[in-house]
């Protein structure tokens, strides 16, 4: 097993590949030791990364990422993550964090400045760099996040269900994210699906829910949210779908066992 690090650096895990990969710009065939800040690149073969705390990551072909003890920063391609809530995957400024133990999902960087997150087991919370929650991706769903250049990072436009709980009004989107409703009275809309525009900010309190200051709110119709509904949240177009992400994992063939 090869390793590349300064003397005294503590290993955080191992990498293995069926073919050649690069670790910290060194070509590797077989296995390598990983350290905090190691850069892993794949070519024609997938790579399996196993961290000391039980996190497992499969990097697809033609992918690149920087690995730390608590997160992977995906810079190109696609990775499958099996981890607990103590680990996160960063992609294009988004933070993807498992909501529960034994969660497994796929994060992909797509053309058009877009990130896709698919849940295969458990669920994943996706937030932007300011802590505004964008989606909770449930099993069997794939959600896309298209970054809008120059967009207002506080703008919100979308649909959801209005509720009243413990003295607070909430809007819940189809991707299971709750926003605290402020600035206008929402009483007459409780129990309705509505279309809302306004501004959103990450604010401590209310269980960590972001604050949504209402500019306009109107009934969205009795049919509720349709498949593929998109929201503009914090300058990011968020669109959900069913089952499309499951096929992503099939491109990641299982890696060989790590030699001991």
Keywords, separated by commas or semicolons:
disordered C terminus, five-stranded mixed barrel, 57% strand, Jelly Rolls, OB fold (Dihydrolipoamide Acetyltransferase, E2P), single chain, 2 domains, 23 strands, 260 residues
CATH topology category name of the largest domain: Jelly Rolls
Query: Which percent band covers the strand fraction?
Result: over 45%
Largest sheet: 5 strands, mixed, barrel
Output the number of helix runs.
0
How is this structure best described in words?
The protein has 260 residues and is mainly beta. It folds into two domains: 9-143, Jelly Rolls, CATH 2.60.120; 155-233, OB fold (Dihydrolipoamide Acetyltransferase, E2P), CATH 2.40.50. It contains no helices and 23 strands. The chain has strands at residues 2-3, 11-23, 26-35, 38-42, 47-51, 56-59, 64-67, 71-76, 78-83, 88-91, 94-98, 103-110, 114-121, 124-127, 133-137, 141-147, 155-165, 168-172, 178-182, 193-201, 210-219, 230-233, 236-242.
In short:
With 260 residues, this protein is mainly β. The protein has strands spanning 2-3, 11-23, 26-35, 38-42, 47-51, 56-59, 64-67, 71-76, 78-83, 88-91, 94-98, 103-110, 114-121, 124-127, 133-137, 141-147, 155-165, 168-172, 178-182, 193-201, 210-219, 230-233, 236-242. The chain has 2 domains: 9-143, Jelly Rolls, CATH 2.60.120.1440; 155-233, OB fold (Dihydrolipoamide Acetyltransferase, E2P) (Beta Barrel).
């Amino acid at each position: 097993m090869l390793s590349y690090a300064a003397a005294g650096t503590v290993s955080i895990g191992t990498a293995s590949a069926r073919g050649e990969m690069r670790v910290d710009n060194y070509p590797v065939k077989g296995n390598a030791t990983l350290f905090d800040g190691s850069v892993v690149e794949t070519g024609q073969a997938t790579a399996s990364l196993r961290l000391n705390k039980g996190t497992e990551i499969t990097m697809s072909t033609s992918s690149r990422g920087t690995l730390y003890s608590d997160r992977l920063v995906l810079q190109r391609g696609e990775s499958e993550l099996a981890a607990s809530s103590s680990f996160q995957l960063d992609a294009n400024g988004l933070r993807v964090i498992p909501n529960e133990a034994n969660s497994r999902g796929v994060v992909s960087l797509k053309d058009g400045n877009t990130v896709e997150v698919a849940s295969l087991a458990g669920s994943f919370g996706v937030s932007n760099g300011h802590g505004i929650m964008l989606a909770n991706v449930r099993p069997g769903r794939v959600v896309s996040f298209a970054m809008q250049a120059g967009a207002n990072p506080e703008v919100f436009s979308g649909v959801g269900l209005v509720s009243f709980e413990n003295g607070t009004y909430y809007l819940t989107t189809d991707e299971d994210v709750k926003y605290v409703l402020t600035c206008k009275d929402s009483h007459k809309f409780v129990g309705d699906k509505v279309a809302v525009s306004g501004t959103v900010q990450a604010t401590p309190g209310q269980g960590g829910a972001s604050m949504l200051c209402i500019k306009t709110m109107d009934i969205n119709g009795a049919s509720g949210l349709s498949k593929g509904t998109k929201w503009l949240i914090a300058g990011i177009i968020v669109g959900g779908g069913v089952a499309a992400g499951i096929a992503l994992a099939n491109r990641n063939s299982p890696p060989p066992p790590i030699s001991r």
